[in-house]
Amino acid sequence: MHALLVEDDDRMALALGTALAQRGHTVRRVGRASDALQHAREAQFVLLDLGLPDLDGLELLRRLRTVCEAPLIVVTARCEERDIVQGLRAGADDYVVKPFRMTELMARIDAVRRRTGAPSGDGPTGGRVRTGDVEIDPAGRTVTVSGQHIRLTRREFDVLAFLAARPGEVHSREEILDRIWGDAFLAASRSLDVHVAGIRAKTARPGLVRTVRGFGYQLGATGQEDGR
């Protein structure tokens, strides 16, 4: 795997680059947002620090997502809830706060790669699913509302497609986190809630993902009246 490491701190970049190389990855390290954008299209994976000298990291993340669909993990010292939520909403596949254990970061990289790789046999590979005026196409990875295309982040779509694969079932938080995040122990994390909120807001259909209090989520019935 070819990783793009966006990190302006030399010591941190050396530690991360060495750990990645030891696991058989090739690494291109850049320290500026402009260089990250230049090399983004060749990357198969991105590690992104938010504290860059030439551009705010969250803005870079938004720009990267317009040109690069590679799995991306934010690795940063920013630990405020607002930053974490903004990073996830902007398209990060995971968010790791410094300082961290290198073994944990490597495990998260492996988990993100598994989730964003080729679909497994039990994944949502069936036909289109329609609920009200919302249509979900797992194969094309598209969502439309009243015929209008809705742009979701990779993770938002993964959550929605997972629920749509078995629309009559209620899925626990642990099951969704294990399947989409690769880690059921993230049950205390707000990551799932942030992405569900993103789905509801972007589709303007708050009933599209139904909350089963104290348990999890289910694909909901919805229609135009949802957005009024």
CATH topology of the largest domain: Rossmann fold
Order of helices and strands: EHEHEHEHEHEEEEHEHHEE
Overall outline = globular
Biggest sheet, in brief?
Answer: 5 strands, parallel
CATH superfamily caption of the largest domain? Response regulator
**Number of helical elements:** 8
CATH architecture annotation of the largest domain:
3-Layer(aba) Sandwich
| Tally of domains | 2
Structural class: alpha/beta
| Strand order in the sheet with the most strands | 2-1-3-4-5
Q: Mind telling me the C-alpha Rg? A: 18 Å
Q: Report the sheet-strand fraction.
A: 15-25%
**N-to-C terminal Cα separation, in Å?**
46 Å
- Name the average pLDDT: 86
Describe the protein in words.
- This protein has 228 residues and is an alpha/beta fold.
- It has two domains: 2-116, Rossmann fold (3-Layer(aba) Sandwich); 129-227, Winged helix-like DNA-binding domain superfamily/Winged helix DNA-binding domain (Arc Repressor Mutant, subunit A).
- Helix content is 39%, strand content 21%.
- It has eight helices and twelve strands.
- The strands form three sheets. A five-stranded parallel β-sheet has the order 2-1-3-4-5, with helices on both faces. The chain has a four-stranded antiparallel β-sheet with strand order 6-7-8-9, covered by helices on one side. A three-stranded antiparallel β-sheet has the order 10-12-11.
- Helix 4 (81-89) links the parallel strand 4 (72-76) and strand 5.
- The longest helix is centred in the middle third of the chain and has 15 residues, at 102-116.
